[in-house]
Amino acid sequence: MAKSTVTQFLSESDAAAARVEATYHKVTWRLMSFIFVCWVLNYLDRVNVSFAQFHLKQDLGLSDAAYGLGVSLFFIGYILLEVPSTLWLKKIGARLTISRIMILWGGISTAMAFMTTPTQFYVARILLGAAEAGFWPGIILYLTYWYPGARRARITSRFLLAIAAAGIIGGPLSGWILHNFVDVLGYKNWQWLFFLEGIPALVMGVVAFFYLVDRPQEARWLDDEQKRIILDALAADRAEKKPAKHTRHQLLVALKDPRVYVLAAGWGTVPLCGTILNYWTPTIIRQAGVSDVLNVGLLSALPYIIGALGMFAVARSSDVRLERRWHFFLCTAVGALGGFLLPVLSGNTAAAIICLGMISISYFGAAAIIWSIPPAYLSDDAAAAGIGAISSLGQVGAFCGPIALGWIKTMTGSLAIGLSAIAAIVMLGGLAVLIGVPANTLREHAEEHS
């Protein structure tokens, strides 16, 4: 009789676990597949401007320093509007926010096809940053409405895989467009690059308005039991946190928390790695001895593949162990080593690709881990402001990095000094999170199936 009872209990437990997994599989397939495509389109912009760099220098008269400035100007509007956009998402919902962001950035990206002067390039980059502001932290906040902490690093890694996919797809695609659209219908190949990679964002922005839902309670494609599974898991997460004092000044509460600045320092290392990967990979591969634009595009996909594989392994390990700090630090250490070695080995194509792959592991892996930390200690009321503040403050590195690299390249003819400086900062950012965020402040709830 006892054996029968145990068997029945195990059977019921397995059935409950299966229902939980089926529920999250449904949510992931429905939401993440759409968000994934949106994020791929977002990062195609980061990839295409690096491939257009050579042609923009010729047709718009840009130097390396001017190109670096233009890349960095993107982050002025981005930084200023990150927090307001994220708070606005909490007020009006993800559906309206994501739709608005995508329509604006798609329109501006498409309009960049008609630039004729460096000033227009600068203005377009500022407007593009303002349009995209809030997309990344908004999605991170949106995921907290659906997934508990024990799943968050893995689901964030799937979201970040879109960046890798953009690099894997975008490099060869950009190379193909530049190779095959020379003077088609009287337009230059780089004009077609911006036009063909901007229109899809406009279309997806319209679709987002009709496709997305803001909260699990509103999802008609979930039954009552599936909604309960999600809401109970989120409630268990909230129970692990200290109750927050209710305040209308959410941003002030977040800015008074020293851990916000520690995490901003850690997050700031990620866009620094992204500066190398997204804006200078084609240049680095060219300097390694590859001249054909199509081959440059194909080879540029390899670091993103390495980064994606590393990210999946790190994110899964982090979620299984519910450990974030050491996983983040190890990612930054790998990226820093890649940055230090790249100037030394840049003359060898295979070695340069491996070093870029190490930087890519840091870029994707560290990003997947660090965004599982704020929801683990910030209250629900403070989460929107805290995530927006961390994202915004961390983007200072993204603003300074391209300017510094472009200026150093112009002055010295080499990226060596800039790459080494970025590597050192990345290592310090990893140490800041490891030391500055005590392990006992991260309260996450291991999943239970009922």
Q: Can you give a write-up of this model?
A:
The chain has 450 residues and is mainly alpha-helical. It has one domain: MFS general substrate transporter like domains (Growth Hormone, Chain: A, Up-down Bundle), CATH 1.20.1250. The protein is built from 17 helices and no strands. Helix 3 packs antiparallel against helix 5, helix 5 packs antiparallel against helix 16 and helix 10 runs antiparallel to helix 17. The two termini are 23 Å apart.
Overall 3D geometry?
A: globular
Number of strands: 0
**What is the CATH top level name?**
Mainly Alpha
Name the CATH superfamily classification.
MFS general substrate transporter like domains
Q: What is the CA–CA distance across the termini? A: 23 Å
In quaternary terms, these chains amount to: single chain
Radius of gyration: 22 Å
Structural class: mainly alpha
Count of individual helical segments: 17
> CATH architecture, please?
Up-down Bundle
Number of domains: 1
Order of helices and strands: HHHHHHHHHHHHHHHHH
Mean of pLDDT:
82
In percent, how helical is the residue content? over 70%
β-sheet strand percentage: under 5%
Any descriptors?
about 450 residues, mainly alpha, Growth Hormone, Chain: A, membrane, transmembrane helix, MFS_trans_sf
In short:
The protein is mainly α. The chain has helices at 2-60, 64-92, 94-111, 118-132, 135-144, 149-180, 189-211, 224-239, 250-255, 258-287, 293-299, 301-321, 325-345, 349-370, 374-377, 380-412, 416-436. The longest helix is centred in the first third of the chain and has 59 residues, at 2-60.
